[in-house]
Each structure stands twice: as C-alpha cells, then as structure tokens.
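Standup notes
- DV: blocked on the single-chain target, sequence here:
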Amino acid sequence: MTHRHQARAALLTALLLITSLPILPAAAEAEGACCEMDEFNLFLTGEAENGGLTPFEADLEEEFETFVTPSVQGLVEIGTWSVVWGLQGNYPDATWEFRIPYEVEAAAGIQINATIGVHIGGTYFEGDAGAGLFLTSNGEVVIPINVEAGEILESDTVEISFSVRSLSFSSPGDDAGIRFIWGSTDYPAKISMKFPLVEIDMKEASVKGRLVFFPIVLKSGFADRMWSASTGGMSVANTAISDRPIATPVNDGVEVTFVWEIPESTDSGNFRTDFHLIPQTSLRIEAYRTHDITAGEDGGGSGGWYPAAEPLRSGGSALNVDIDASFDGDSVERVVIIEIDGAMSQWIRWGLDNIGNDSLSSNSWWRNLRTYADSIPSSDFHNGRVDDSELLALQGHLIGSASDMKSFLANGLSIDAEALFGVNPIDLGPMDINIDLGHTRAFSSEAIKLTFDTSNSVAEGQRQQLIESFVRKTQDDYYNDVSLHVEIRSSALQGLGGVAAEDIDVKHRRWILMEMITVDESDLDPDKSFRVEFVPTGGALYSPLVSAMVSVFMLCIALGLGLFLTRKRVKVPAMLTVVVLGGLSLALYVLGLDMPFVLGVVASSMLLVFPVALVSPRSDSKKLPRSRHGGARVDCPKCGESIRVDSDVRPLRLPCEGCDSILRLE
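- DV (later): unblocked, structure below
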C-alpha cells in the first residue's frame, strides 16, 4: 500500500471514530424554565420537640432555646425539626453543613460529642462534629453531613435531629450549662444544602391593548409563601416593572403576574424579560424568557384584565389608618379612614367584580355577598371593572349588619373592628360607609379608601378605649407598611380626663378652648401590641376653659396674699414662689396632666406663700432713714409723726409735737 493510500485509510478511520462518539448537549437551561440547584439554607424554627424548617429569613421571628446542665448524663436530644417538602426532584452528592449558635454559662468551657441526623423520606444520613469538641464562651457548633445523591417525592418529609452526649464541663459553677439557640435573626440556626427548592415556569405573555401580562408560576412545597415570604421582581428590556404583581394560588404553588405597558414609541418586537426571586439573602434565583409581543387593538374603554382565580392578599400591602374623633361629654363621633393598596386592593377589586360567582372557593369571604347577585345587572357581572351596583352591594352589606361589617374587617382585611372603633361594632350608632376606588375601577393595586362615619355613647367616669392593636395576627403577613394617625378633640366645657398609653407615643395637649389627644406613627410594627385609653371625668370643673379660669383666679389670690403678708418684709421670695408655681401649673396644664394634679399645684402656691412670707426678712433697717434734707428721722410709735434727729448723742430724748410724747433713742 502506498503512502497516499495509507493516509486515506487513516483519515477514513478517524472519521468513523468521530461519528461513533455520542453527541453531548450543551449545559444550558431551557428558556423560561428554572432552576439550577443552588445551595441554600433551611432555618430552624419552632419548639425543640416539633420544630419546623423554612427557607425564608422572614420567618425568623421568635427565639427558642434548649439548656443543658452538667447533671444531665448520656445522650441529650436538643431538638427535632421537619418539613413536608412538597416538590419532587433529584438531589446530588454534596456535603451539607449544620450550624447552631450556643452560649456556655458559668464554666470555662465544655467538651461534647455532637451529632446531626438527616432524614430525607426513607433515607438517613448522619454527621458529627468529631470526638471531644471543646466549646468556650459563645459561637456556633458546625457539623458536616455527607449526603449521597437521591430523589425526594412530593409527600416526603425532610427531618433533622440534633443531639449531644458525653458532656464534660471545665471549672463549672453553680449554674453551669450550655444553651443552644435558634429561630431569630440574631441566632439563625440552619442547615446548608443542595436540594430542589422551587420550579419557575415563565408562561407565554398575553396582550390586552398596550398592556402586557407576564404570568410566572412558582411551584414548590411552600405554596404562595414562596412569593409572599420572598422578595422578587421582573424587568423588561432591562427596565424594572415598578407596579406590584398579581399573585393567585394554583396547584402546588402560586402564579405571579406582572403587568407592563408597551411604550408609545413601540408597537411590536421581541422583548427579553428577566425574573428574580430572593427567598433569603444568600440565594438569588433567576430566570428569563424572550417574548414576541404585538400591541393589540382592544385597549380602549374603562375595563381591564382580571385574574380567573381569587388573588392572594399576602402579596404585600400598605395600610394607612386615619381616625378623626370628637368628644362632647356624652358620645364620641368618629370618622375612620382605612387606606389600602397593593395585594389587598387587588383582592377587593376582584371580589367586587365577582359578587355572585358560583366558582368561588368555600372559604372565600366574597361568598357572603352571593345574596346580592340578583341586584347586579348581567352587564356588570365579571366585566373587568368595578361598577356602581357592585359598590352599592358591598356598602349595603356592611351598613346593614354590624356583624357583617366586623366580619369584613376581620376575615377580609385582617383588621380588628373593636380595636379600631373603641367599642364592639354592635354598640355603635348609625354608620355611613363610603368606598373610594381612586382614579381607576379596573383591576389595579391602586389605593382604596374605606371611610366609616359613626359614633358611640360614653358614660361619665367610664374608661374609654381610643385605639389599640388593630392588625390581626395571622399566619400570612398581609401588611408590610402600616401607619396610624389618631386625633380626638373635646370642647371648651368638656375635658378628656386622664390618658393611659401602653407601648406607643401619645401627645396630650390642653388649650383654653379645647383638649386634644394625638397619636402619630408613620412606621408602625403590625405585630406590636399597644393601647390608648382616656377616662372622661365629666363636670365643668375639669374642662379646659373652667379649669384655666380657676387656676388663674387661685394664682391671683396667691399673689394678693403674698403682697399682703410681706407689707413690712422683703417681697421677692413670696413673689418668686407664686411665679414659679404658676409657670409650673401652666406647663402641666398645657402638657395635659390630670386636672386634679394641676389644680393641686396651683393650690400649693397659695399655701406656700404663708411660710415663705414668714421666713422672709423684714424690710425695716436698724439704720434710721434719712430725710431728703439731710439728717435722720424717726416715726413716733404712738401717733406716727416723723421727728427729725439732729444729734448723734445716745441716749437722746426727743419731744413729739403730734402727741406731746417723749421719745428715747438708745
């Protein structure tokens, strides 16, 4: 065979070998789907006996602990934490890491053996911190766990159990021990893992006029909390969408729909959308998709797009409560304005447009209005906007029954009506309710204002609640921004009495023509417990006008007494006492302290004048006063005649021309 034939044979053999090799796909995700398996943390929450596991830092709200003392021997179970995963998937070979904070008390240190067990469905893995781990002061116990690849099913449970044994304390005191802590942001015990957490499906966009709706399905074992307990957003062509998305529940997850308006300069084109989700600080999940979008022609009119399912209320809302009240001695008139935007606004708008919808879930609050379905014209039903007939249906439902209004606030808006109005809604007088949807009646997160105008009677001397914690504690956090403004005023002849405030700043001011209590909180913690009460005393004596007049009158009496008692004494101490106590009384009056206390301070100025005047030095001097013509003069003690003294000789006898008496000067 020639060299040329040998070269051809070698080339042919090489080609055959290349074509026989398998074709390897590129390591890339499908567009619109997610996600690669990133490492994330599961945080420990709840009691040690039946604690939970969560990927959300927002759930780190309450601190828990287990304290182990030297008297405990053998194996000590610190705690067990678990979660039903709810998402099927595979997990790779990896080394997980368990961390839990500790504090050593009343001992130089402690030597322990620590073990962590991990159950993934029916599979068990275990790790330990090594023999004779020595701990001092405070820090973290860190234990690695080697986990082999496997599969988790939707119904499987992930469970971890932490235990210690062979405890040996160094120089222990009487209260020696080691404390393991978890559940709060200060003590975030956790296990780092590689595991299927969430599946993101960016669906095809839908267009209505110049509005584009981008639905994204988040499938996980944490249902809608995968969105509500995380932070996230979307950008179109590198421009972030600022409007709040619409969150609706779906099977095994939540659908989040972002709304984007096509710029006026563009009618169509390919647009890349980027979505991100941040369940915890150390984890950012991203997905993208390119959409071919053409502006539609049905964007006119006042209607809009509504989701098919009832929106979630837990997507984040701002709540602003403004209470304007007045007290006339017999009753309190209140105007309560509740302003809500975000997910709660979307929920109200959707519910109003779905009054009488037979497909509502059994636990939907809007089923309470199904009896009003006949009052709504068919043209108004589910037409993509809120109509007057639907507003009237809700207003009639709330005004017609105090219990229905209480149910709407409590079960719908998660607001305690009794805390807001100061009394049980059943005890309220006639009520007027107004609902303002703002600039649009279409489906939107724009703020909605609910105005309640009502009153309630008040008995004299009865403690009256002005406001207390009104956001109900629920599993879901509906409000992420709460503000409160309360103001109550009284007339010139009626006071508000004593004010008691717990865990909130209150400003109480008293002017001559009115008395006022003000609460102003621009960033109120929804979970904070607080209360403000006042006790109207009744009667005119403690009213702003009469009490001011009485105080001025008593101060004038004190001033007159001071002048009278110091006729022949130095007047400065007595006058200074009256002025100081008068100024103090004025300050206490304006700052709203109880009127009996203020009047007591005023009365004390009258009483203190007597001892102050008695101890004041006399104004008479031992030196004889000199006349303006020179020489000294002395008054006759019998008739008061002024007698001139022309000699310094002592003793000296002087005749009085007024009464013919003889004065002797020593």
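- Follow-up: The domain at 199-294 is CATH 2.60.40.10 (Immunoglobulin-like).
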